[in-house]
Amino acid sequence: MVGHLLLLLVVIIICYAPTSSTAAGGEVPFYEDCPSTADGTYAPNSTYQSNLAALAAELIENSTEYGSAAGSFGAAPDAVYGVARCRGDSKGPLCAGYLREAFDAAMNRTTSSRPLCELRRNVTLFYDRFQLRFADADFVSGYGNEPEWPLNNTNVVDAPVAGRFREHVAALLNATARDAAAQPDRYGTGDSRIQEGGTMEFALVLCTRDMDPGRCGACLQRIISEMPRMLDASQIGGRVLGVRCLLRYEMASNSFFHIDNRTLHLQKQPTRACSPTCP
Question: Where are the alpha helices (DSSP H) in the chain?
Answer without folding.
Answer: 2-16, 47-66, 93-106, 162-182, 213-225, 227-230
